[in-house]
Amino acid sequence: MEAISSAFGAANRQEHVVGNLLASLKNGSFSTESIEEPKHLLSNSLNELSRSVGQLLPLIQRLPPSNRFHWKAKVDSLQEKVDLHRSEFMRFLSSHHEAAVREQLFSRPEGGLVNRPPMSVEHRFAEEKQALNRFDEHIEIALGQATETLHEMRRQRYTLKGTRTVLLSVMGQLGLSNTVMRFVRRRNREDRLLVYAGMIITTLIIIGLLYLFRW
């Protein structure tokens, strides 16, 4: 019980940190130049939080059956918050990427690439950096979706393990019931034989007594 309480408390604190960082990003607390580091920090924090929540599931299986439902509800509630944070982060990355692409399109000269004046080295480096940042955003989105799918598969795995445990328990109870039924049938046959044998013996005794007192 102490292990899962400590792990859940740590995961809950991580969730508050992720929520505050996500709120800062959505509120525009960072400039365009300084937003990359918070994005990476939030992505890493979300992945670490998902791992922490995933590590709580095996701990629930070790609890007594009377405490599992309570902790399962708490972990499910925390997992819903994590999924909500990840969905909001994915929407933020998508909107930020669309805004960057739109800004780049509107910043092109009217003559297009043909009449475009020669760029300086600094300008080329800036454009390369923007392209790398956009590629990094695509990678972040793909990693987020893959991580979400992985944790969903992990939750389904533990759900299937719980179902398997229940089925094994039911099969054990059915096996015990079959054993009891076989014992009852055998005892019923033995009792029937005892009754018939008793009836025959009683009949013979009565016949013997009648024969003895009559003659």
From TrEMBL:
Superkingdom is Eukaryota
Give TM regions. 193-213
Write down the membrane topology: Single-pass type IV membrane protein
* Record-level GO cellular component terms: endoplasmic reticulum membrane; ER to Golgi transport vesicle membrane; Golgi membrane; late endosome membrane; SNARE complex
GO MF terms, alphabetically ordered: SNAP receptor activity; SNARE binding
What are the subcellular locations of this protein?
A: Golgi apparatus membrane
Coiled coil region boundaries:
none
Q: What is this protein called?
A: Golgi SNAP receptor complex member 2
Listed A to Z, the keywords are:
Golgi apparatus, Membrane, Protein transport, Transmembrane, Transmembrane helix, Transport
GO BP field: protein transport; vesicle fusion
